[in-house]
Amino acid sequence: MKSIKCLEQLWTFTDERCYILLAIARSKENDNIQATDQPTIRKIIEDRDELENKIEQLKQATSRFDNEYRLYATINGRNARDALHLLQKESLDWLRKSEKSGQTPTKIKRIDHEWKSILQRDECRDEKRFLWDIDDPSEEALKEIRASLSDHRIMTLQTPNGWHIITDPFNFTAIDEFDPDESEFHGYECERKNDSLTFMGFL
Length: 203
Prior knowledge:
By secondary structure, the chain is α+β, with helices and mostly antiparallel strands.
């Protein structure tokens, strides 16, 4: 329920904007999984009323496996119209290559997977929020960084290794305490991300 309430505050739906929930089995919690091959299950959320049902679907899907899954959510909406244009373009490319090679394009059979992947691309984001990924669990790190971001902050979420702060876009180069080259904020390890996923909890 906490995840649902957070996402209801964070996400703003429109006729062409959707968001994505992801269940990921990270190698950090699962010894049998390689960092380069982490099982992922994705659900597209078209409106607020779907949230509870889609999270329940992810719970049921992950319960079939012995792995521990994390729940992540896109911080920026995805523009379905832009994604559709990209899918149409890429579908034509698949068909042209197929006609030249004489082989059936394998991606045709996994069009649902390709659609979700295209939605997650940077060029399909419908918002431009920042994610500040603080790799330090201390309250001191959170307090100092959050104070510097107070004018732009939307939401703060705790992660297994620290904190996520989501902000509106702004001129971050004006903050003297943030060093983007070293990914440090007030001396604490912190990376700014343009279009990322935020941790919502474990499934």
